[in-house]
Amino acid sequence: MKSRYSYFVITVLLLVWSSLSLAADKRRLYYVDYKVKFQPKTHSAQVEIKLGKKAEYVRWIRLQIDPQYHTGFKGSGSVEKQENHVLWKPKPEGGTLSFNVRINHRRSSGKYDAFFTDDWVMVRGDDLVPPVRVDMEDGTKARAKLYFDLPKGWSIATPYPRYSSGAYKVDHPHRLFDRPTGWMVAGKIGVKREQINGIKVSVAAPKRQSVRRMDILAFLNWNLPTLLDIFPSFPERILIVSAGNPMWRGALSGPNSLYMHAERPLISEDGTSPLIHEMVHVAMAARSGAKSDWLVEGLAEYYSLEIMRRSGTITPQRFEKAHKQLAERGKEVTNLSVDRSYGPITAKAVGVLRDLNSEIRKKTNGKASLDNVVKALATKREEITLNRVRKVAEQVAGVPITTLNGKF
Hints:
Strand order of the largest sheet: 4-7-2-1-12-14
Radius of gyration: 24 Å
Order of helices and strands: HEEEEEEEEEEHEEEEEEEHEEEHHHHHH
Oligomer: single chain
Number of strands: 20
Helix content: 25-40%
Largest sheet: 6 strands, mixed
Structural class: alpha+beta
Strand content: 25-35%
Number of helices: 9
């Protein structure tokens, strides 16, 4: 009888807790539509933000703009343009804010990380809709859709799922106000798609750009399952975009997406992989804290090697040789705590992280490793700092860690 009563009490408590959790998570929705019209003649885009149903929940929206790239702001309600911000106070019934976006963006190297030609455009959603701050009623959340007005004969690839209506679902569960982010490419493009271990992978590039889409998919067929073992919370879909000159000859990750130059190898001569490096960035969605970029870049480089070793893409001998080359490259580095990590800094960081992995394994008799640390880091979307990594590593190991106690 006592056992049956205890079971009843536990069941009731669980139901109450579940109801409270659902109530806490249930937010009142208001609706936001983004409309993007690409304009080949001016190599620009016209963007419109429309607040619809339940717009009264929003008091104001402030956009952090670059005046050289975001111009021509017009809207219903009040629109105040400041030096690097635009403050929009919409009417209670809603309305629209529209502006123009200059696409072409040249990096310090002289190459572009956003580019518009007569036949295609490659850009990040972050460039089209700049960062925003929103003053809205407590307990509310945006539900957003993204629409495109494309020139005749154009198509588009984005990181987002598409409704039958043609709109794209913009949903970032960790945000209360959703806006388009991540890479996209539109125009006369070719797209190859594959489902790998439940992940929807798309590789998109302008036509006649010498992008080996099938090579990329084959490479991921070998390595993505291993990456998922380490990062089980990897996004359900990922878009990889690529193009040749005059795009920047590197690789950059974004939410649920990444860019890699058409001439970048899948595996570099030093044995690391630019593609897997960026895939790890996507998996972790990590922001580095002050002077901690070496940890974020070091983890991506460390796992670009580790994943290929585990998948059998490279031999154990090649794996060890790659680590020796990285150690040689970073041997002159005495300070890792810089604003932006670069080649020798990242190479040195890989060695530190390999030592950390060895220490954790030794102190747990092989029951835990650096994998447990990065899984914990990837679960919470917090800044990556030395103190945070040390704390998580000690929680995993169950004892103090000495590897990270030095001067970095």
